[in-house]
Amino acid sequence: MVWAHHRVRKFVRDKLPYAQVNSSNEVHDDIAALIVVGGGSMIDLAKDLRYERGNNIVLVAIPTVWGSGAENSPVVVLERDGEKWIRMDSGFLPDYRVVWRELMPFAPEKLLIYGCGDVWAHALEGMLSPLATRELQAEIANLIRRMLEVELNLDGEWYELSAQACAAQAQSSVGLIHGIAHVLEPMLPENDDGEKLGHARLCSTLLYPIMSYNRQASGKLEHTFQENGLAVEPIFTVLQELFESSDYDFILPFVHDNWKIILRNPSSRANSALVRQNSLDFFVEKRF
Amino acid sequence: MTNRVKLRLLLLDVFLLEPDEFHWDLLRKDVETWDSLGLLSMAVGVQESFGYHFSADEANSIKSVQDIIKILSVNGISFEE
Predict the structure, then answer these.
(1) What are the pLDDT digits (tens) for A55-80?
(2) What is the largest CA-CA distance in chain B?
């Protein structure tokens, strides 16, 4: 049985000769396998559905956009009662993941660029996490070298980089970028253009300010980069490219008003540099 | 700033305490935010503020503010007034 995102439904129907459903509610109990073709939220819903049904269904995850790496992660992030609900269990990991590059043209271009920001956030927060071992840091540094060679554009290589960054990060933790994103996502209203800022878009814009904060708050960033043969400046150039000042200005009042909640978020508490009550000044005064 | 003041400010931040909630005999079991993540961010903060890296055994043995002071003192960081 196939559950595909509406943007790719017709394309997938023509390519895969299996019954299709339009929502997770329509997935039968007695199926042998579920092929989910969609973004991170859809894949996480499918992972949760399969898990709740006792893991007797073979799950194949095919991402339409890169960024979340949900197809290669034992973590599910679901929105429940206006809050992000995060669970981690090896039972959530799909049985197979497939990179289907022909799906790329169906995704909005901006979504794919923001997805690159999500991949960068996973890689950098995973590598700098207090829980990252030296081996993991070296593995992510190799991944970052590959990421630096791929431009922030429509390059299908990002599907693979995304899956690997997410799997690597799942071995340590995320940090303040994800802490802020997870707190704000459910509460942010639409911006002046009527757009809802999603997870990847928030990560894209938060990368540069937060990595700048980590850099000035502790020597760990420079030290870890140096120890793993990574130059700081080319990486910060990419982060600057992903930064959108209008998005930053839009979210800043929400960061300010929810700072105490952000400080209590588990991801924020696992940040590479300690996030203090007065760290907010760095972001409000834009010291980056 | 003395090490005692530095440590107090650090623990207020790490455990998200109000100033009047802190005292030098504070126990881990009395602080809701002194969980495994609190321990992790305390270790990060101690490294940033005092340049000392807790070993895993040390971090796991800490049950009070006085334990932190003892470990740091043994490693040459003075808390004498």
Answers:
(1) 789 999 999 999 999 999 999 998 88
(2) 30
Per domain, the residue ranges of chain A are 2-102, 108-284
In eight-state DSSP terms, residue A95 is: S
ipTM given for this complex: 0.90
Give the tens place of pLDDT for each residue, B17-66.
Answer: 999 999 999 999 999 999 999 999 999 999 999 999 999 899 999 999 99
Mutate: best of B10, B37, B49, B52, partner A, most A CBs <10 A? B37
Nearest-by-Cβ selection for B40 from A130, A263, A264: A130
What is the CATH architecture assignment of A2-102?
3-Layer(aba) Sandwich (3.40)
Give the model's pLDDT for residue A56.
Answer: 87
- Looking at the DSSP bridge assignments, the partners of residue A88 are A75
β-sheet bridge partners, residue A78: A85
| pTM (two decimals) | 0.94
Quick check: helix, strand or coil at residue A97?
strand
Residue numbers in A near B6 (CB within 8 A): none
CATH 3.90.580.10 matches A108-284: no
Which of residues 195 through 224 in chain A touch B, CB cutoff 8 A? 217-218
Please tell me whether residue A42 adopts helix, strand or coil conformation.
helix
